[in-house]
Each structure stands twice: as C-alpha cells, then as structure tokens.
Amino acid sequence: YPPSVISPTPSSEFGYVGIDAILEQMRRKAMKQGFEVNIMVVGQSGLGKSTLTNTLFKSKVSRRSVMTTEEERIPKTIEIKSISHVIEEKGVRMKLTVIDTPGFGDQINNENCWQPIMKFINAQYEQYLQEEINIDRKKRIPDSRVHCCIYFIPPTGHCLRPIDIEFMRHLSKVVNIVPVIAKADTLTLEERNFFKQKIREDLRANEIDIYPQNEFDEDAEDRMINEKIRAMIPFAVVGSDQEYQVNGKRLLGRKTRWGTVEVENTTHCEFAYLRDLLIRTHMQNIKDITSSIHYEMYRVRRLNENNTKPNGQPAIHTNGVPEHEVLSHEM
C-alpha cells in the first residue's frame, strides 16, 4: 500500500513538527558557501559591453576597468578573457566571473568567428566533466561553465545581421543566450519597437531558442512570467556608470542636450528588466538550465563518444566542432 500522507497542523494531536525549518538550514548553508555565476558578454567593439557590465553590478567588474591603456587595443583575433571578482551585499557573497570576447565581429571577414567562443564554452564543460569523473573528486567542483551569454546587437533599426543569426543559431544550443539592443538611446521609441519586432521574427524564422526557452517552463506560473519576458526580448538597454542629479535624486544616466537618459527608468530603457532577469529573479534558473540541460547534453555526448568512437577517427560533435578542437587540455 502507498504510505499515507500526514499533514500535521498546529491543532493536531501532536502539534508542530518543524519541517519548514529546512528552508533556514538551506539558507544558512548557501550563505556559508557563497554563490558563483559566470556571465559572457559578446558583441563588436564600441557597443558598451564593459559599461553595461559595470552598471549591472554597480562595480568596476569589466575587463576594461582593470586593464592598462596599452592592453586595451583591439586584438586582431578573438581573445577570450575572464576576470573574477567577489561582490558582497547584505552579507551575501557572490563570485562573479565576466568573460569578455574582444575582437568578435571586428574583422573584415567574420566567417566562423563564433567557433573560438563555442570552443571556449565546450572547454569549460570538458573541464567540469574531467573533475566529475575523477575517482578522488573534489567535494565541491570549481564551476567555470558559462551560465549566460549576453549578446549585444548593434542599434541599426533594421533586422539581425547574418553574423548575429549565425552566432546565436550555433551558440543557443550550448549556452543560455540573452540578446540585448545596445545603446538603445540612439533609436526613437517607434524605431526601437519596430526593431524588436523584426528581431523576434528573425529569431523565430531561424529557430533560435533564446533564454528563457519555452520547453523549460516548469509550470503555468513559470510560463506566465516567462511569456512576459519573451515578449520584451531583446531588451533595449542603455548603460552608464555616471551619476547625475535629477529632480533632487542621484541617478545613473547619460546626459544629453535635451535631458538625461535614466538607466534604471523603465520608460527610458529596459536595463532594469535585464538586471532583474539576470540577478533578482532568474539567476538560479539560468544556472540550473546550464547544469541540467546544456552541460548534461555535453556530458552524455562525450560519454557516448568514449564508448563508441572508432579507432583513429576523431569524433564530430553535434555542433560541428571536431573533438580535438573542443577538449580543454588540447586548446
């Protein structure tokens, strides 16, 4: 017989059991361990990637913030650089790693420029997998997997460029992608709405799944919340680390001749919605999907390859990158 479900209530014979105390236990454990999140920013030079990252976390966390002038020159090829910081707020400690991709989309010929980024993402999965299959594995495996990729679309006002479609088509299979329209204050509200609609049409036409993906909605409540986000994506954002006095308040913004664009004012831009998604409402979900979907697909594929790979033939991944190009120890 199935066990009967007993729902103790304060008025029952035995009184309060205290099952809800598990939430406090989990909170204490999480606070001790701290949190970690790895965010990749992708887009051509001059779209404000560094400024937006600094604005999101209200700290100097971008690559450019910690580099000397000599190191800031645009590289000839894509050089993926990671910078880690520990941010603390109200007793909550978070290790944030920002992965920058300077050089992306800056060349005359940008064919296959998504490949080094794909290679890097897969290399982090491989590193995690190697740690996981060790006989003497660490109690807590260091997590360098890319949890989210913010993709910066230039504010052309027309439609997605072939490079945008190619990048998101390949990378959406292995990482959570959140597209944003960079420097959205260069577009009028009508241009912005038209551009957002065109981008959503292009994403649908090319079967590109961006975060939050339809198939991972867990229940009706999730679906309702995520539908609102999907209707807003791509977020039209403006970043700024400059504070200005507006109506007696100190606000982050961009000063122009005709007024101040307030970064956190949702009637001016959608930065606040992006921040809420990445930090306040969906950060844990983004990490869970990375672990249970993207990494899991990689893990299953790699373990299958180990079992079925014919001698002398390199295995080809479903994303089209040969195995020897993906493995972290051969990068």
Account of the protein in words:
This protein has helices at residues 21-33, 49-57, 115-132, 162-171, 189-205, 220-232, 271-281, 283-308, 323-326; strands spanning 35-42, 81-89, 92-100, 148-153, 177-181, 235-236, 243-246, 249-256, 259-262. By secondary structure, it is an alpha/beta fold. It has a single domain, classed as Rossmann fold (3-Layer(aba) Sandwich). Strands 2-3-1-4-5-6 form a 6-stranded mixed sheet, sandwiched between helices. Mean pLDDT is 86; it is low at 327-331.
Quick summary of this structure?
By secondary structure, the chain is α/β, with parallel strands linked by helices.
Characteristic terms for this protein:
331 residues, alpha/beta, Rossmann fold, three-stranded antiparallel β-sheet, globular, disordered C terminus
What's the mean pLDDT score?
86
Strand order, main sheet: write it out.
2-3-1-4-5-6
What's the helix-strand series? HEHEEHEHEHHEEEEHHH
How would a crystallographer describe the biggest sheet?
A: 6 strands, mixed
What is the domain tally? 1
Query: Given this structure, which CATH class is correct?
Result: Alpha Beta
Report, as a whole number of angstroms, the end-to-end distance.
56 Å
Produce the secondary structure layout:
Elements: H1 21-33, E1 35-42, H2 49-57, E2 81-89, E3 92-100, H3 115-132, E4 148-153, H4 162-171, E5 177-181, H5 189-205, H6 220-232, E6 235-236, E7 243-246, E8 249-256, E9 259-262, H7 271-281, H8 283-308, H9 323-326
Parallel strand pairs: 1-3, 1-4, 4-5, 5-6
Antiparallel strand pairs: 2-3, 7-8, 8-9
Helix pairs in contact: 7-8
